[in-house]
Design goal:
The chain is an alpha/beta fold. The protein has helices at residues 12-22, 70-86, 115-124, 155-163, 180-190, 234-245, 264-271, 292-299; strands spanning 3-7, 25-27, 29-33, 39-43, 55-59, 91-96, 130-134, 149-152, 171-174, 196-198, 200-203, 210-213, 223-230, 251-258, 275-279, 287-289. The chain starts with a strand and ends with a helix. Bound molecules: ribose-5-phosphate (R5P). The site of ribose-5-phosphate (R5P) has 14 residues, from strand 13 and helix 6.
Length: 300
């Protein structure tokens, strides 16, 4: 049985890195937009029989970027899965490093939908065999898959990058309650007895505005603020300002999925961060940590 990696338009660098590690052939895609805005995608193959009976992996992240929004990325993902599925692979594994809509996992106001679960069910309905994502906002949503679905933890990879920066008296900050488990994992990989402190964050569910508090002494410490997603940069900018007020020295802003929408990078650096660190789940200038080994290990 042959093995092929279909690399979606949003995961080209990470896809190529994984293909090199696995030493497998890749299939690219051809995309365009119809005049009415609909997406078009075809697998770039001349002979459909290369999929039939083979082990096929698809990788496509679904974060918004300057090139495309997340809805288009999800449509492209559906098209890739549905095209491959039509050609009868033996196994179809799907990797979505950043799962868009993952943050809509709860009902905050009357009339809302738990849309993260709908996205999961839509992917599941296309008949795939296995699903992988990375540091998903609410891992519970993967229970809505009917097939094996795994959330990969990139904290060791990110910690390896941070380790060589030789921080002094490092402290890890979780900018909200939801991030505590992640920050503890990260601190454990970073070294022995690295403390984790929690900032308290409240978001107005109507306006989206954030209020953050902390009353701790960070003087003499370098600080790593660790989050799953950096979107508008609002959470990070607040946490950085508070860290500064509490006396922090160096400040690193670390996000697994650094979407960096609009002026997020400016907001974060302007608030006082020394460096922004993200992974190649999203391809941006701060994608300094590669997820290729972590994902390739699962696909071997
Ligand atoms: C929220 O619960 C997430 O963990 C992140 O803190 C949030 O998505 C970051 O978004 P932003 O950068 O827009 O503040």
């Amino acid at each position: 049985m042959g093995k092929y990696l279909i690399i979606g338009p949003s995961s080209q660098l990470l896809g190529m890195r994984i293909a090199k590690l696995l030493n497998i052939e890749t299939i690219t895609t051809e995309t365009k937009k119809f005049p009415d805005g609909e997406n078009y995608l075809r697998l770039n193959i001349d002979d459909e029989s290369i999929i039939e009976g083979n082990d096929i992996i698809i990788i496509q992240t679904t974060g918004a970027s300057t090139k495309e929004n997340q809805n288009a990325r999800i449509m492209e993902l559906f098209m890739m899965i549905s095209a491959a599925k039509r050609m009868n692979p033996q196994n179809l594994t799907v990797v979505v490093p950043y799962l868009a809509y993952g943050r809509q996992d709860k009902i905050f106001r009357p009339g809302e939908t738990r849309f993260a679960s709908v996205i999961v069910k839509m992917i599941d309905s296309l008949g795939i065999d296995k699903f992988y994502t990375v540091d998903v906002h609410a891992p519970d949503i993967l229970n809505d898959f009917s097939i094996p679905a795994k959330n990969l933890d990139p904290m060791s990879e990110i910690a390896n990058y941070v380790k060589v920066l030789n921080l002094n008296n490092a402290i890890v900050i979780a900018p909200d309650k939801g991030g505590v488990a992640r920050s503890e994992q990260f601190a454990a990989h970073l070294g022995e007895n690295i403390p984790v402190k929690l900032f308290s964050k409240e978001r107005d569910v109507r306006t989206g505005e954030i209020e953050m508090y902390a009353d701790i002494d960070l003087s003499g410490h370098d600080v790593i603020i660790s989050d799953d997603i950096i979107a508008t940069g609002g959470t990070m900018a607040n946490a950085i300002k508070i860290s500064k007020k509490c006396g922090a020295n160096k400040i690193l802003a670390v996000g697994t999925h650094a979407l960096l929408l609009e002026n997020a990078a400016y907001r974060i650096l302007n608030a006082g961060a020394d460096e922004i660190i993200g992974t190649d789940s999203i391809d941006t200038p701060v994608s300094k940590v590669s997820l290729a080994k972590l994902i390739a290990k699962q696909l071997e």
